[in-house]
Amino acid sequence: MASLSATSRNGVARGAHSAQRPAPATLPRSRMSLVARASAAEPARRDVLKAVAGGMAAVSLGAFAPAPVSAASGAAATIQEAYGAFGQFAATGEYSPLESYFGDGVKWVSTVNGGYTGKGKADVARFFTWVRQVNDVSKFQPVKFVEQGNSVAVLVNMAGKGKLTGKPYDGYISHFFVVENGKITDFLEVAGADVSNAVGTTPFPKA
Predict the structure, then answer these.
(1) Is 193 left (phi over 0), alpha (psi -120 to 50) or beta?
(2) For the chain, first and last CA: distance in Å?
(3) What pLDDT, on a 0 to 100 scale, did the predictor assign at position 106?
(4) Is 122 exposed, middle or buried (0-12, 13-18, 19+ CB in 10 A)?
(5) How many CA atoms lie within 13 A of 74 on its CB side?
(6) Which pLDDT score, from 0 to 100, does residue 1 have?
(7) Ranges in the chain, pLDDT < 70
(8) How far apart (Å, rounded) are the C-alpha atoms in residues 152 and 130?
(9) CB burial readout 183-199, b (16+ within 10 A) else e
(10) Would you tell me which of 68, 148, 175, 190 could form a disulfide with 32, CB atoms 3.0–4.6 Å apart?
(11) pLDDT computed for residue 117 by the predictor
(12) CB under 8 Å to 96, separation ≥6 — which residues?
């Protein structure tokens, strides 16, 4: 979530079902992102890298409002709501609603800014403190959700600019989650070079 922001029960951005067709060459290889169950008429593709960008929830940070959970349930619904809480955090800095979705021993990994690895809520809070300092997110649009059991993968189109560098970015990130008993216990984010270049090299806060 170095690049998250989204739709939720917490009154976050408005979700909109919209078809997205990004150029395949720009899709990053990754493991993690938001989830919604695939349509019964279209079997779920398990490889998010080959997934068609057929968006299920467009999010604008400029229009926060409650959004329906779609047909998602279980782990997928939890991630949708967590994205919404992230959108609230990105817009207002209010962190507690987002933190409520994390398990006590949550494992947190991101490739942004040379890589971040943490475990537990305190480490995740430090990561989001850094995100708030360096990343000005203007768009967060999940374009593909894949759910298998308690695992969720999401391909996200995200745009914004680095707060300290002023550099704009508009690209794709991938999120991979494990959800247990309604809490996120494992997270992996794979971000493209454009995002990392834009947010700069400001060190993560120390424990």
Answers:
(1) alpha
(2) 19
(3) 98
(4) exposed
(5) 13
(6) 62
(7) 1-73
(8) 25
(9) bbbbbbbbbbebbbebb
(10) 175
(11) 97
(12) none
Amino acid at 181: N
pTM tops 0.85? no
Q: Is 190 helix (H, G, I), strand (E, B) or coil?
A: strand
Q: Which two tokens stand for residue 191?
A: 């971000």
Query: H/E element holding 191?
Result: strand 183-191
Find out whether 199 and 4 touch, Cβ atoms under 8 Å.
Answer: no
Per-residue confidence (pLDDT) for residue 23, from 0 to 100: 46
Rounded Cα gap, residues 139 and 157, in angstroms: 8
Q: Concatenated DSSP letters for 4-68?
A: -----TTT-BPP--------GGGPPP-S-----PPPTTSPPPS-GGG-----S--EETTSB----
- State the amino acid at position 119 in one-letter form: K
Instruction: Report the chain's C-alpha Rg in angstroms.
Output: 15
- Bridge partners, 169 (sequence order): 160
Query: Which 3 state secondary structure label does DSSP give 147?
Result: strand
